[in-house]
Specification:
This is Carbohydrate-binding module family 19 domain-containing protein. The protein is an alpha+beta fold and about 260 residues long. The protein has five helices and ten strands; from the N terminus they run βββββαβααααββββ. The protein folds into two domains: about 90 residues, no CATH class; about 150 residues, no CATH class. The strands form four sheets. The protein has a three-stranded antiparallel beta sheet with strand order 1-2-3, with no helix packed on it. It has a three-stranded mixed beta sheet with strand order 8-9-10, with no helix packed on it. The chain has a two-stranded antiparallel sheet with strand order 4-5.
Amino acid sequence: MQSYDLLTSPTIPRVDHFAAGQNACIDGKFVQCVDGKFTAGVSCGEDLQCVALPLVNSKGTSITCDRVADAKQRIANTGAKGGLTGKRVKRGTPTAPPACKNKGKRSFLELAFGKRIAQSDLGDVAESWQKLCLESGGDIQTNSPCVTLAGINGINSLLANADPCDQQKNADAMVKFAKSKGVKNKDALIANAKAYREHPRNALNIGGITPSTPFCQEEAEEPEIRGLVNKQLDGVDPGIFGGPKFDLVAFGACE
């Protein structure tokens, strides 16, 4: 799936509609379907862009950060035609299709979503884990930890409308992999997981306010992650917490 920059070939299913919370790539950036609209794009970082790559063991694609040349080669190796963008490319300002609309309860979500705070280092965050994982000597085939915990779950968990505990769960999974059989750079992987857990999540301007991102209220499974929380981006309102999926609440207030 690459949103309107579609991967189209006989072996890769085409996705035309998006559900609320679903991710896509537009113009090389991560976007997410929120309340019938795509959020502002999140850049992957220098020399990287958001791409849809075909799955190895099943039909479909997954989105991740990758270098353009590497992504093209991986697609070519599958025998798929059309390269990164397929044969149809819709340019201009993206508009979410009707199926993207959230039909659930709305409250403050009717407020206009404004510009997000620039966060250009997400690609570097994903690549740092992926590089260590590939060098680990562990089982990098089962559940694809090098890709899944980096450019897929890793980045998705840092987006503004991710669940507050998604980032912690991903960090827990990183530590579990670091402790798995055959891994030879355990300490480096755990240090990376701890840095990831403390990385600021993305923040969107909502109705003229850029709230701080909510903290996870659950205890981490791995002791190395316990007590760590995500930092906040410079520019967020330190007294207001919330996001595209959460009502705005004042610091210290009961939800």
